[in-house]
Amino acid sequence: ELSAHSGDRYSLDSVREALVKQEDTIVYGLIERTKFPSNSHTYAENYIEIPGFCGSLVEFVVKNTEALQAQAGRYQSPEENPFFPENLPPPIVPSYPFTQILHPGAASLNINKSIWKMYFQELLPLLVTSGDDGNYAQTAASDLSLLQAISRRIHYGKFVAEVKFRESPQDYEPLIRAQDREGLMKLLTFESVEEMVRKRVEKKAMVFGQEVSLNRVDDTNVKHKFDPSVASRLYQKWVIPLTKEVQVQYLLRRLD
Ligand SMILES: C=C(O[C@@H]1C=C(C(=O)O)C=C[C@H]1O)C(=O)O
């Protein structure tokens, strides 16, 4: 059972700490993806011809990788959500006793379709330069690991919401009973935390993405692997709002 003291894996502080660590993974993922140009063949519907498969190369890579990772047990963790949950094979590994802190409704909360759309339609065009270097499989693999990092961060909203609910059920319950989306959104929002997150992510993008040179004379024209404002825009426009959307959707079902 969960209690609200700090040091607990599921206190609001420790849940926020987990989100801070996930920022690193996302920033590294952005850096890794920028090593390749746009490589548009990776995303074209008619580039590959495989009997019985209809879709782009990135879909082919993601669906098959997810099937393999499902067998290896990835989606037994309540922190992981597949992009293509339809027809995943069962795990071949024994199950691990993950702490069950979430309401059972959490299992069916998956907004990866929106994340997928945002990633390919909005984020990638901001992030990569146009070009084609033929490394489509590697490009798809780096898309997948970045997508997984972003998805894990956004769906972590389930844990954030559960902890917030347990810390003040008296505030949340009436709003949930009234199915008051807006009221819930207001109650779970902390503007000052969001601002800190955005600033820290931009700083991480700046620091982790810095070109390291041994013979630099002055630090004024340090080169960056990608535009750090892309990272803060990613958070501001999509990651934070979608994390809050997950929190609201989770809470709306919390008393079912
Ligand atoms: C994740 C939280 O909930 C909301 C969403 C945030 C985010 O996605 O970074 C930050 C603050 C809150 O408005 C939180 O309170 O930490």
UniProtKB/TrEMBL annotation:
InterPro entries: Chorismate_II_sf (IPR036263), Chorismate_mutase_AroQ_euk (IPR008238), CM_AroQ_sf_eucaryotic (IPR037039), CM_II_prokaryot (IPR002701)
GO molecular function, one term: chorismate mutase activity
GO biological process: amino acid biosynthetic process; aromatic amino acid family biosynthetic process; chorismate metabolic process; prephenate(2-) biosynthetic process
Catalytic activity: chorismate = prephenate
UniProt superkingdom: Eukaryota
Pathway annotation from the record: Metabolic intermediate biosynthesis; prephenate biosynthesis; prephenate from chorismate: step 1/1
SUPFAM superfamilies: Chorismate mutase II (SSF48600)
Keyword tags: Amino-acid biosynthesis, Aromatic amino acid biosynthesis, Isomerase, Signal
GO cellular component: cytoplasm
Domain Chorismate mutase: residue ranges: 136-247
EC annotation from Swiss-Prot or TrEMBL: 5.4.99.5
UniProt-listed PANTHER family: CHORISMATE MUTASE
Name used for this protein in its record: Chorismate mutase
